[in-house]
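Sorry to interrupt, but I need a hand with the structure work. Could you write out one complete protein record for me, on any chain you like? Could you add the entry underneath, on a fresh line?
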Amino acid sequence: MTSKIALVVASVYLSCSIASSDRNLEAENRTCECLEKSRDARSDDVDAITVVLDRHSQLIDDLTARLQALENRSQKKVVFSAHFSIEVIKDIGPGKTIIFDTAAFNIGNGYDPATGIFRAPYAGEYVFHIKILSASNNGIRLDVVTTPNNAIITTTEVWVHPDREVATAQSMVHLSAGQQVWVLGYPTNMNPPLTQLWGLIYSSFSGFLLYPD
């Protein structure tokens, strides 16, 4: 009888142990599943973070390139203003280059006061301005021209008048690097050899780089 009781007790204990082991195994399986899901979730998070970091890195590279381009453009400064060193400019034209032989300033060294020719240091949009003061009874037209073929950028003209006449003109043009700009004179009165301009600061030629390519 005692042996039977012991056998029953052992059987019950074994059953409980097996059930407990099954529960532990199920718990461990659930834990493993949770860990795997957590690992997968972390992996997805890492992938998402990597994508965001890559985008930010590309954005930083783009902004750096833009800042560098702006810095390069800001360093391309071209400005000049030229006038005459004498009071009266005589015997102008026809088609003669007007040499403004005094450069008040010449940032970028694009203008040559010895020849009256401006050579664009950089490609871009340029603005040119011309001002003339004619002597009494003198008519003259000045053309701001460029290569090739003396293409006219802008022109200004004063008519024959008993008193002095003032005229100005301004225009914008795109120039390639090395392209030249200068001023040509054309008398409009009946006696061209007598055509004269007032010099010094009363007549001037100027220009600047508005926006480089």
Q: What stands out?
A: The radius of gyration is 43 Å. The mean pLDDT is 79.
